[in-house]
Amino acid sequence: MADDIVCSGFFRAAEGADLSCLDKFQDSGSLQFLTGNVLEAFYNFFAAVLNPGMWLDWSNGEAMMRFIYYGASTELFFVLAVGLVILTIVGIRKRAIMWGVVRGLEGFANGLGRLFAWAGLIMVIQQIIIVFMQRIFTRPDISIGFGIPLQFDISWFGEELKLYNAMVVCLCVSYTFVQGGHVRVDLFYAGAKFRTKKIVDMFGAVFFMMPFAIVTWLYGWFFLWRHLVTPNPSASDSLELLLRKSRLLKWNVETIGFSPNGFNGYFLFKILLCLFCVLVMLQAIAIFYRSWCELREGEESEGKYLDKDTLGDGEEAYEGAH
Fold this sequence. Notes:
By secondary structure, the protein is mainly α. Helix content is 65%, strand content 4%. The chain has 14 helices and four strands. It has helices at residues 12-15, 20-26, 30-50, 53-56, 61-70, 74-93, 95-116, 118-135, 154-171, 173-179, 194-225, 239-245, 267-297, 313-321; strands at 141-144, 150-153, 229-230, 250-251. Helix 10 (173-179) packs parallel to helix 13 (267-297). The longest helix is centred in the middle third of the chain and has 32 residues, at 194-225.
């Protein structure tokens, strides 16, 4: 096994590939590291696609550890980065493709955001029920369901309210971007010219949104898995060490609450953190692509294909008056 995993790329043992010379080249300098990983990204992509059982067969401990390791690895970063660069080059040459990506990503953001925005209403209704059960009916617990009831202490439902809030924050983040609902510091941006605004948006998407989401993902990914399996994986663990740990691998989902009868599904918050990072990265791509297309097509294309929610004729009349 040790000989099979000397190389760091995706599942090289499955292909029988000997890429040790490429590893040595990558270790010889920063430029060589970048060049080597870009070249290796093509191999890694096809190796992962052609050998899904090597990382998706979670009945196998080694496959699961590979999934955990590569989920926040240099290899995955370069595979996605190279794919994004290729898509961007194609989109620059054929703007219709770039607009298609924008419409797809913004449509996905809108659909997801509009769905999980209902979590806010559910949170309010559940809080009202808790107050009634505690103050009027003096019940210590709440039982819901038919046939097999789901019964928990009221404190469990009280702490669960934080989950609905987390859903709104994490799963509606890209929807709020599309709708223009995030707070923006307008000291210079508001008075800037159209071209300047587009350049600022592209710069912010690449140098602020993307790095923030990537760094948060790197911490959040292993933070999640440390509360799902044992032995605990770590970001500093090599693939070889994780594969050795896989011999003892078993599920150990976190079910510890802050109070004895409180909410015990806090691993869900860690899943939401990872989903939040993915949505921010996808929205950064959408913002960059939209800004580029609008910059190339001029001011008349601003807001093209943009699906923004309105409150009806009253809101439109208010905006027209101002």
